[in-house]
Design a protein that fits this description.
The chain has one domain: Alpha-Beta Plaits, CATH 3.30.70.2340. It contains three helices and six strands. The strands form two sheets. It has a four-stranded antiparallel β-sheet with strand order 4-5-1-6, with helices on one face. A two-stranded antiparallel ribbon has the order 2-3. Strand 4 and strand 5 form a beta hairpin. The two termini are about 15 Å apart.
């Protein structure tokens, strides 16, 4: 799956059967690999950030991730496939 310019991928914390994905901090763990720290505070990358949509934990992937961090994009897509998570592509 490739994202076009001005698209984002939303990974939804539900599996194909609609059950919540565990552990409950999966989104923060996944996004933590691209975060930075300043003044003892964590800042998530705009390329890969956690979100809560309709009460469900999600991860929002910016289209630039596949060009700027190709290995990370491949890892994220493998994570989605391996864990059978729901996802959707949207225009920004």
């Amino acid at each position: 799956m490739l994202l076009e310019e001005n698209q984002k991928l939303t990974i939804i914390g539900l599996n194909e059967e609609g059950q919540k994905f565990r552990p409950s901090d999966w989104a923060e763990r996944l996004c933590g690999s691209l975060c930075t720290f300043r003044n003892r505070r964590m800042y998530y990358s705009p390329l890969l950030r956690p979100a809560v949509i309709d009460g469900v934990k999600c991860v929002v992937v910016d289209h630039r991730l596949q060009q700027e961090q190709e290995e990370m994009f491949t890892y994220v897509m493998g994570f989605v496939h391996e864990n059978k998570l729901q996802s959707r592509i949207e225009d920004k």
